[in-house]
Every structure is written in C-alpha cells, then in structure tokens.
Amino acid sequence: MDNNRNFLITIALSVLILTVWQVFYMNPRIEEQRETAQVEAERPGETTAQQGTGTGGEGNIPSANGAQGGTVPGSSPATTAPASREAAVGAAERVKIDTPRLAGSINLTGARLDDLLLKDYHVTVDRDSPNIELLNPAASPDGYYVETGYVGDGAGTLPGPQTVWMLEEGSVLSPGNPVTLRYTNDAGLTFLRTFSVDSNYLFTISDTIRNEGGEAVALSNYGRSTRLGQPETTGIYILHEGFIGVTGEEGLQEISYSEAEDEEGNAITPAKSSDGWLGITDKYWAVTMVPRAGEDFQPRYSYFQDGRTGYQADFLTDPVTVAPGGETTVDTLVFAGAKEVNVINSYEREQGIRQFELLIDWGWFYFITKPMFYLIDWLFKLLGNFGLAILATTVIVKLIFFPLANKSYKSMANMKKVQPALMELREKYADDKMKQQQAMMELYKKEKINPLAGCWPILIQIPVFFALYKVLYVTIEMRHAPFFGWIQDLAAPDPTSIFNLFGLLPYDVPSFLMIGVWPLIMGVTMFLQMRMNPSPPDPTQAMIFNWMPVVFTFMLATFPAGLVIYWAWNNLLSIIQQGVIMKRQGAKIELWDNLVGLFKRKPDPAE
Question: How far apart are CA 589 and CA 579, in angstroms?
Fold first, then answer.
C-alpha cells in the first residue's frame, strides 16, 4: 500500500503545481486577454497611436550578402506618431480585395498587401464585434504587411517599398478575377505583377519581367513579411508564436521574437533552401510566403529598430538573368489568414508546399493531438455542435479503453472483497511493517489483485485530457464554438461563478474565484466517483481523496469549458461503468454509506 500511497501523493503534487501555475500565471494572462478583446470590441473604429518614434521604420530589404541591408530606400525615420488605421489606409491609392472570406486592399505604393480583414472571425464572441484585422499599413500603430520586390546592380530603379505601380487590368481582386499592375523603370525593364486569390486565404503574386533594354540584367527576387511594434503573444509554453518556417535541411524552425532580439546582429539566417516556406504566426492566424520551388533562396528572420521596433521574415532568391528582348516569370505564394486545419492541409497537398501542416502547433504529442482533432471535427460535421462532438468523443474513448477499464474496476471490486483480510494482516503485523507488506503482497498474488488498478482510470484520462486541451487551445475551429445555454465559447472558461450566484448579484469576481456551473458539475461527479470506493485506511490517502475534487474544481474552472465538460461527462460514464461491474462482481457499492458517513458524528475516543 505504500506504493499506492506514494503514487497518489505524486499525483496530488502534480495537481498542486498545475494549480499554482494556472492561478498565478494563466489566470492573469486570460484576464488581460479578455480586457484587451473587450476594449477592441468597444472601440471598433479607433486605434491608439503608439508613443515614440513614428512611421518611418519599415524594416529592411534583403541584400545579396545576407546583411541587414539598412533602412528601406525612401523611408526616412519620422517624428510624428503613427496614424490611425483608417487614415493610413486612405492615404494611398489602392485596389480593392473582396473574397468570400477576406476584405481589404492592395497598396499601389510598393504593391504590398497591407490591408486585410477576416470576414469570418470577430474580436469577441459577439457577432457584431469588429472583424479581425490581420494586415495593417506601415503607418498605422500595428503595421503588418507582405511585400515582394527585386534587388540587383545595373538594372535601374527596381520595384521596392516606394515604387508606385499603375493599375493595368482589373478593378477588384476576387476569386477568378485577378488584377494586374505595371511598372516600367529607367533601364527599360517592365514589370507586370498579377495578383490572384482563391476562395480562402492563398494569394499568388506572379511577376512577368520584360527586358526592353540593350543589356542583360541579373535580378534577385525578395519577399518579406514585416511586423511593426511589439506583437502581443499568449506567452504560454504549449504554443509557439513568432517566426516559423520549413526550409533546407533544418526543416521546421520555430523562433521566438526574443530569440531574434538576442541573436548577434539581430538576425537568424538558416542555410539556403530550394523549397519550403517562412513567415510569422500567431495563435490563430499566420502570414507566410512560399518562394517558387526549385530555385535557391536565402531565408532570414530578423529584429530591427529602424525608427520603430519591428520583426521581419524574409527571403532572397539567387539571381535570374533576363536577356535583352527576353522575359521571365517569378511566382510567390502568400498565405494570409486563419490557420484552419483542412485549409492548411489542402494547400500542402494541392500546392505541394513542404510540411505546411506544421504551421499548426500540434506539439510533441501530435500523434495523439491530431487524431483527437480529426475525430472531434468529424463528429462536429455529423452532429452540428462541437460540444456534442466532445461528448461523443468521450464515449468513443471510453469504448476504446473499455477492456482495460473493466479489468481495473474488477480488480477494485476484488480489493473490496479482501478488505477484512487486509485489516487482519495490519493488526497481526502492526509492529512489523516489512512482514505486513510481504503478507499483503502474497494475498494480492493469491487473489490476482493489482493494488494500483484503481489508478488506471485516472492515468488513462491524462493523455486524452492534455490532447483535448491542446486541441481546444490551438485550433481555430474551437474558437468561439458554442455549446448550449451560457457556454458560447468552448475554448474559453465557463463565464459564470458561484460567488456572484452565477450573475444574479451585480458584481464581478476575481478570475481565481470564477467557479462556474460546469466546474461544479465536474467536481461533484469526481466526488461521487471517489465515494463509490471505501475510504482508504491510510490518513494521507484519505486526505488526498477528500481534497482532490475540490482542488480539481478550482484548477479546471479556468480551463476551456470544453475540457471541463469532457471531464464531467467522463466521470459520469465512469460512475455508471464502475457501478455495473461492481454489481456483477458481487462487490458492495460504498457510495451511499460513504455519503451518509459524512454526516454521522464520529465517536469521541475519550468517551
């Protein structure tokens, strides 16, 4: 029994660590994110200018030697504060973008994507709240854009950040309706840039370069995803936010913003690659570039302070030569949108983008997390509600582990049968713990009992629990997914609290006291499940069993509601399963006696 006790103490300590982490680290971050989202929702048309430097710092373009390249030509640091987003968008000539899922415009200065809204996603669960603003002009407080251009010697003024393009063909960029821009430089080079977009989030930038001069020219194509200001991140170890890419022999690279800041020269430069992708990822959104496969390019991830703090993922291809009177075409794919699993997978498959699925952070236990997501997603399509899909997933998981759980519960039932014999052994060898343990182990062996069998139902839940937690946390499909009643977002905690009578009293409670209806249901079902077994004779074990439901209630109260619903439903199914098996085995179900015993007055030994 010492092994059993030590095992349970280990579980209790693990739970305690998770609770402390949740209360003192996660809860403040959740509260901060709620307040930020609320402010954004209440101020749909406003943006606050950042303090300090100004609109000038737009990063840098890659140079042939891989150095930082200095300030972008024509973008001298300014002293005025960034403009509002609306003012920045209206300050330049643009071509409208209108797709089933995107709205925005192409800036004709630089031919860059710097105005993009996601039609299907809102700041809060309220459908009337503002749409997510993914890309913003450089002059706005949260500048974030994608741009392609060229560098080279002896080829005149090449397309770059300050190049003003002319609209050649088309008026509104939409699926099946591309737009073409034109730029002719002073060396006889004409660039025809065609933007096309699909019905989701993939842009194709196709440049046709015509050399009408008298000399051959060598040009290198660059692409950059640039983000100005300090990005807000969740800062949680289970999720990567920052630079990301799959290039060269290194494969997947996940680089945090701080890593780029701390790197010598403020830039991380992997080896050259001939395929892959790179960009910047948030929790739910990403902006990545895919250079044309088969041509070598140099990837880079950098941090800069060029008037404004910023971060940039970029690439520079090897030079391509365009003969006099000749032309060539350069293609770049740009993904800018929500990290939807099926959409990401379709791009990897149809566009041949190497390991593009890694844009979604499935984690080290992807072999559990991904199947869990696909199962829930399939059930969602069948049932029409992610909450019901989670309940159905719980039933399927219970069926998969049914033989193991049955064996465990049978062993527990047999343990109850030998309780009288165990008590006799404890009394007989009360002064000799070694002999007591040996005698008990012989009894277990004789009766074919595993004393740790009662822990298996909990152990089985742990990997499923964390896989579901990961799915709820990282997949956008779960964001703002409603259940029933007051649960309008399965990826957020239960918004109710017993400490204000679930909203009846007119005051808010601290985040660590947000003990909602579903956490209470989970705590009650866990309590009932534990009370189906006799109280452990060991005081330490008894204390752990008594307090574990309370600790789990407080701990899980700030976890996603979908996770709490899963745990409560799993507890209920376990109670039913255990009760049926115990009845078949002829073992007494201790639930009622244990509940009654809680209210009985214990005799005073002194009486």
Answer: 7
